Amino acid sequence: MISSIIRAAVFTALIHFIYSVDIKGFCHNESHDCPCGSTGTTVNVKVDGCSYVRRFEFRCRPCDRDSYDKVCPNYAHCQTCAPGLNGCETCPPGKYGVWCTLDCRCQNGGVCDKDTGNCRCLPGFSGALCEIRDGCPPPAHPQGVLATMAPPNLPKIIHYNCPTGFKRIGEGTINCQNDGSWNGVPPYCERQVPCPPLPDVARSVAQVHGAATSVREIQYNGTTVTYSCADGYEVVGAKSLECTHEGAWTASPPSCLKVSETEVTCSTKANEILSDDSDTAVRVHCPPGCGLVPGSVIGSYQYHVLSSICRAAVHAGRVNNAGGAVHVRAAGAYADFVSSTAHGVSSANFSSLGASFRFVTVDDSQWRIPDEGCPPKWTDSGSFCFYSAGKSRSQAPARNFCRNLGSQAIALRGDNATKALVAEFLVANGIGETWLSELQVQSPFLLNPATSGTPGDSCMALSVANPSQPEVITRPCGLALPVTCFALKTLKLVQCEDPGPVKGGSALVEKTAHGRFLEGSRISYYCKELHYLSGEGRLTCTANGTWSAQKPRCIPVVTCGEPEVPSHGTIRVLPPIRGGDPRRGPVRGHARASVPIRLQRPLSLSSTVYDGNDTTAAEEANLVLPPGHHRVGSRAEYACLPQYEMAGSTVRRCLSSGQWSGLPATCIPVCGRSDSPRSPLIYNGNASDVGQWPWQAALSVRNPVSNDSAAEWVLNCGGSLLSETWVVTAAHCVTYEASRVVIPRDILRIALGKHFRSDSKDDANVQVRQVAEIHVNFDYDPSTYDNDIALLQLDEAVELTPRVRPVCLPTDRSARVHLQEGKLGVATGWGLTESGDYADVLSEAVLPVVANEKCQEAYERAGVPLTVSEAMFCAGHANATSDACSGDSGGPMVFLDDAVTTERRWILEGVVSWGSPSGCAVANQYGGFTRVFAFLPWIKQFV
């Protein structure tokens, strides 16, 4: 029973096994068409057939009963399919795997291996994911450019250079980017063309944009140089220059111009504008009429800094009488300023070295007022032109800065249009406040009292803090505010030519515009002294471009100036013989104070007297002579004071040439005249009368050892007065004994008009002077007394009186006549008398002249050999009745001039020099005298 159950169970299990297990080999394989990807193609897929038992029958079916449903969908992932493959043939981009179900991470076009997923990179890329670009295709190579590629075939970087003589334009290096493009374009090479070197521009800073770093280096085309000026200077000209392909700069270098901040008038001198170290041009604007008014001008091409700068500008032809801008520069030390007359202005010469200036040409077109419109770089705001300076300034310099630009600081008018224009310009240029030059009472601008400063120390300014409502405020005048200048826009108007100055007169220009005489301009002319105006005195520029009348003339009136009053003389000027003023009294010793004289008619060049018959113009008749001028025909009569006599014309007449006739009168001292009635007939001499010998001088020497004040000065020698300041004496009187060494002048004094030897007896007529200079003749020999003569200059001129007069110097004729054997002369002095005492009063001795040979032989016979030279002569009596002696040295020996018959004149022929070594008044031993005529040329060098 059990075994049967077991067999039944085994059989049942076997049947179930056979039924449930597919058995290959008994059935044929099946095939199916599966869709491949999205291309619309199919792939035939074979499916293995397996047998199975059903109801004890073998049947066929796919071994994998779900194979179709499982296999066909997989082919939808493929890109391409192939029969017999258990997977996709190829995968779509970005997929890999048996059935292309895995995502590929390759970059830059890299493709994954279908089975492994490894990236296969396109050429030029590398890396696990092809994320690394190995290079870019080289760009087109520019002609003439040197390129270095790394790596060579597919470069990542390219360096560019240019051959010598060329300049690279563009980047020197470009890099390959991950997107396969280059980060720049290749450059090109441009031939280098050098431009001329740029000069240094004083007061500027130059920035070079190019290969060079300094303007001193060679600059090539493409280089740009930008200029800026130092503080206080304005750029005139182009601020930026570029070197072009033609080897030229686009513009000339600019200059840094200093616009003067000083107020300029017609009398302003150059040294008020220029500083010593100024090496740049300074711009000033000359007012109108400067060539028509007086003022100093020194030089022609270069001018002295003391010259009136605007008159010099007219003289140099830089501006006319309508005024205008000029540029000046300090020119250093200069000599030989040459005078000339140009453009109606006369300049003086100056030969000494002096500081100078000159006018320079500056291209300031950006500031020059054009014939029509606004200057370049100015802002055109309708009817106004505005300019904003680069530097802030206090009020006065700001005002003068604008004036020297030929414009003015902002001035408000009484209309809203002006208000809007000014505010608009200030806001556009970032200016919050600026100075005002003037403010009219009816101006619509508001004055804000809250911002006002202290009266007298505040100036008006304009604030546009609220652009819609500008305010007039006050600020301290010394505060620096932005400077805004404005000028009226110029229009093409009628203008007149500059009529120029009038000779002998001046003019006042009343109205001009921008350095031109426009319609309505006026000039008023005035004549100088001694000229009268002929014609219309006021001219107006009319609508047809001509002046309303011919330019007038200033006709000169010929007069003579004040005649010089001679020293020690008088003069009186008498009017012409007919008409004129009453006789005038004499004037003594100084210029006469004249009273203006009204002319009865003008003086012609040939007139000498006035007859009052000619009919003249009213302006001529009304001319008044100023003091110091005399009409033609006036007479000047001269006279001399006592003790002087006239040399020259005693009467001179004013000629039609404006000169006085004749020679100028001179009063010279009367020489050699004595008022004493005695006829002079020193040892054994006679006492003279007081004042008999008025040229006698007494030389005293200070006694250094005397304690007696009265004996302090010792009369030592005599001398002779030659003029008010010169005395002649013997050289041995003013030198140390047996020496040429001159004694100190401060131990000498000279008395004139003296009669008594003792100083205590001197009266008020004695004049005492100190010695200013001592001149000993350079040939003086102390051993032989040859050339024994000296001149003494007094420290103060003596007054000539009857007691003090000069002696006459000899002439060739007088010396030949007087110094003959036996001729009598007079020697004077205070020397020893026959008693052995010095004379108490001035004594005189009449001595005959002794021939030099006779004198020399007499001394030889006495055993005293000496030589009487041609510069000496001897005088004395053989019996020694009188002689010159000790104390008489240096005194005069005079002779009465026989040629004068009307009055006695005494001639100085000798100076007492030496005597006998045996003593005074020794028989046959005569006195020696210096022959004065021999030294006349030397004396005239001083006297």
From TrEMBL:
First and last residue of the signal peptide: 1-20
Keyword match Protein transport: no
One Gene Ontology term of the molecular function aspect: serine-type endopeptidase activity
LCCL domain span: 260-357
InterPro entries with a match to the protein in the record: CTDL_fold, EGF, LCCL, LCCL_sf, Peptidase_S1_PA, Peptidase_S1_PA_chymotrypsin, Peptidase_S1A, Serine_Proteases_S1
GO CC term (a single one): extracellular space
Disordered: annotated segments: 571-590
Positions of disulphide bridges: C121-C130, C162-C189, C229-C256, C527-C554, C640-C667
All copies of domain Peptidase S1, residue ranges: 682-943
Annotated Pfam families: LCCL, Sushi, Trypsin
Limits of the Sushi domain: 134-191, 193-258, 494-556, 616-669
UniProt entry keywords in alphabetical sequence: Disulfide bond, EGF-like domain, Hydrolase, Protease, Secreted, Serine protease, Signal, Sushi
Domain EGF-like: 96-131
Compartment list: Secreted
GO BP terms, alphabetized: proteolysis
Protein name per UniProt: Limulus factor C-related multidomain serine protease
Species of provenance: Rhipicephalus zambeziensis
